[in-house]
Design brief:
With 307 residues, the protein is mainly alpha-helical. The protein contains 14 helices and two strands; from the N terminus they run E-E-H-H-H-H-H-H-H-H-H-H-H-H-H-H. A two-stranded antiparallel sheet has the order 1-2. Strand 1 and strand 2 form a beta hairpin. The longest helix has 19 residues, at 135-153. The model is unreliable at 1-44 (pLDDT under 50).
């Protein structure tokens, strides 16, 4: 229920949190939000006085709201098997998933498995992946990755975290992406979006991905980890931007201690939304909501139409 009152010091706002209609105003910096005019930390920031149980309940309420906002959330890298997802995730470093998705059809047509990748011509591989940036380093990693998979894992992507992180170009983030989406093994994927939102939500104070993963894992059941990762990343890309978050159009504003960091006016905030939530993309959003089981396919169709 909407209200114009400012939250009391040391409390988190209650209410429905409907997208586009946040219920209170406030200010705060990521990881250390403060109550308006008091300089005191809001509830939700670690060390603010919010109990572990209260933080857990608030975190899970945020997750439920994100699930309602993004019932179509999914891995935004296109893949058909663990090898393709592993390679695509390695390529996604320092670039967008959209860019990776544009070059992977040709890449996997040329190099469909680990052995083919291991035997790839360096110049040809560089030419294909050049649009993703840092293509020389990535080419080196992909060649080494292919060789390691062939030599040590019979050309098959391993399904264990401890094995995956030994592969060239693969860290915990990439490993958790592969485990969660190709093997169905729960994992929290900490990329720049997830880390930023975890701090803004008061789930962690850390900048270290391993610590963020550990802090967030304590708040949720393992069965929720993979989809939580998708939802938070979706929200970070569409609403809770790095420089100017659209606080006034945020579905979780009622439970976010950083509300007020960005634009709070609903009309102005709506103009900051991206992808299917952006003004003019109502038809795409409608399709995604109506056919959540086809979300990846619908997304790929929409990206192919972008000039």
């Amino acid at each position: 229920m909407a209200t114009s009152s400012t939250p009391r010091r040391g409390t988190v706002r209650n209410g429905a949190g409907a997208p586009g209609s946040p219920t209170t105003a406030g200010t705060g910096a990521p990881g250390s939000p403060t109550a308006a005019g008091t300089g005191a930390p809001e509830a939700g920031a670690p060390g603010s006085g919010e109990s572990t149980l209260a933080r857990k309940r608030r975190a899970r309420r945020i997750n439920r709201a994100l699930a309602e906002q993004y019932p179509y959330a999914h891995a935004e890298l296109d893949f058909r098997n663990p090898f393709e997802l592993l390679v695509a995730t390695v390529l996604s470093a320092q670039t967008t998933d959209v860019t990776v998705n544009l070059i992977t059809p040709l890449l996997f047509a040329r190099y469909p498995d680990a052995r083919a990748m291991a035997e790839a011509d360096t110049a040809e591989l560089e030419a294909i992946i050049k649009p993703t940036g840092f293509f020389r380093a990535k080419t080196k990693n992909l060649l080494a990755l292919g060789n390691r998979l062939v030599d040590e894992f019979d050309g098959v992507v391993p399904g264990r975290l401890e094995d995956l992180v030994t592969l060239p170009g693969v860290g915990r983030k990439t490993a958790n992406v592969v485990l969660g989406n190709a093997f169905g093994i729960p994992g929290i994927t900490v990329d720049t979006h997830f880390g930023r939102l975890a701090r803004r939500f008061g789930w962690t104070e850390s900048d270290d991905p391993v610590r963020i993963e550990s802090d967030v894992a304590e708040l949720f059941e393992p069965r929720d980890w993979t989809m939580l990762s998708h939802r938070v990343v979706f929200h970070g890309r569409r609403v809770c931007h790095s420089r100017k978050p659209a606080c006034g159009a945020c579905a979780v504003a009622n439970w976010c201690p950083s509300f007020g960091l960005g634009e709070t006016d609903p009309a102005k905030a709506a103009k900051l939304l991206k992808y299917e939530l952006a003004p003019g993309n109502e038809a795409l959003l409608g399709r995604l909501l109506a056919e959540t089981h086809r979300a990846a396919e619908i997304r790929m169709e929409s990206q192919r139409r972008v000039p």
